[in-house]
Amino acid sequence: MTSPAAPRERPLTPRKLLAAGLGLVVLLALPTVLPTFQTLQVSYGLIFGIAALGFNLLLGYTGLLSFGHSAFFGAGAYMAAFLVKYAGVTSMEAFLAAGVLAAFATAAVFGVVCVRYTRIFFSILALALSQVLWSLALKLFWVTGGTDGLRVPTPTLLAGALAPAADKTAFLVHRYYYYVLAVFVLAVAVMWVILHSPFGTALQAIRDNEVRAEFVGVQVRRYRYVAFLVSGAFTGLAGALWVPLNGLTTPDILYWPFSGKIVFMAVLGGFRTFWGPIVGAIVFNYLETWAVGFTVYWQLVLGLILVALVLAMPTGLAGTASLLAARLWRR
Amino acid sequence: MDTLVIQILNSLFYASILFLIACGLTLVYGVMRIVNMAHGNLYAVGAYVAAWIIGLVAGWMPSAGLFLLILVGAAAAAFAGAVLEPTMLRPLYRRAEEYQLLITFGLLLILEDLLRLVWGPHPLTASALSDTLGSFTLLGATYPGYNLFVIAVGGAAAALLWALVYRTRFGVMLRATSQDMRMAAALGINVKQVYVQAFTIGCFMAGLGGAVVMPISGAVLGMGVDALILAFVVVVIGGLGSLEGALVGALIVGAVRTLGITYFAEIELAVLYLIAAVVLFVRPAGLFGRA
Fold first, then answer.
1. Does ipTM exceed 0.95?
2. Which of A52, A314, B118, B249 could make an S-S bridge to B238, C-beta 3.0–4.6 Å?
3. Is B275 on the interface with A (CB under 8 A)?
């Protein structure tokens, strides 16, 4: 197995901090500049960014390619919908907490089976298990609404301090956008801390050389299990955050091609970097919206892009950008 | 009694289709160590091409000839495989496994839409074929003759594949490549050629499965993706890379599906995965897998 330039996460340098700060300022200013539709797209992109970030803890940092992350995203989304339907709760904080918990519990069960395997077996098992949830969501229609899915109204934010406005769109592009952004920043910060902790370093050691990591004293399977749990929880958080924006949750988000989309995002951005999957998620969301709007054969367009990426640009957008930057620097 | 006979025949019917899909998946993995996510789409290609060509000639061709046209569907899938392996997969053998999986996922998306592009969003079918065989009475149970034909095709395909792999010179080369690719290359086997041939055979089997099931379930968009998931369960139970495993896995999954449709339709898929999970706990490499 070849791993070109496997990254060792470096500490925060002033320059990185500056870049992150600039990015944040741009994100904060966006709703005032962009039209409504574009702002919504950025929200979607940020949410998928959280999902891809969680996914990449496994692919980029532990060396496990999961084709089953739709299960966690769906667990988060459906849990929020269940809260509305069965408990009458409309607090966003409750959605997030319950969504993360549901995804965490799902990961705890799936992980027991999946983490025993690596490589292709891990991918297939994660895929297969996620399809159990999909089939249940589809078939137990009296609980989940079947193909119609479940509706989720706009929630109250911050324990009722920000009640949903009368105009739903205005609420989504303004208050909810900033809410998503805040959760996003928090999630990125937490992931950054995780990856720079001894735990994160151990995961990278496992990715680079499992046998050596085991000899050094890393309990490989336990670390993988914990990484699986954390990864699932992040993706579940994204699912819960996504539901009010979309207004509806359907079994589509549990179906495995949705997992494929999350994989696509990470590869598009570059799964060997920290920021790659986030960039990939935002770009992918635009790409998909554009392709769907412009042709019914959007899958064909996305497939061709994926094939071209794998063949010609395996390090993704972030990897290629840093390669180009390095080349320019040298000149 | 007659319900039992019908249930057994239904199980065998499902098992035949599942085996035709899963044997190609497992053969390709056994030889090339690649899990082809687009495999289900080649099954769909077989179905679409067969439905299309049978629809073209059904008016004037005797029905016995129509049965031979099923092979055209299989050949189309085989041709697609023979083109895809050298162009798409070969550049990636030296790269990390993730990329191989990713490119087959890209192919899945492309093939899915190509089918829609060529044949449109509406299902195709050729029920003329399934009607010609009428139905048989077997031990007091009435059963469609075409389903018996499918069972026969599945059985014959399994026997022929077994003979090919274990009783021919080509089979020896195939197994040698599967066990140790570099040693096989050192001994003078043209590994590149074996790869193309194995991939083509795998796709042929998938195409045959699609073509043979088409008169019953039709050629529908999305059929490949659904079939792929079931084929995964089959090979996970049987052991990825083992043909015997694919056969036994197909029989198990076929039986569970038949029972599931009758007794627990809501949780049928969940039960299948539960079985797969139990098998993996007891035998991590699957029933017939190598560790």
1. no
2. B249
3. no
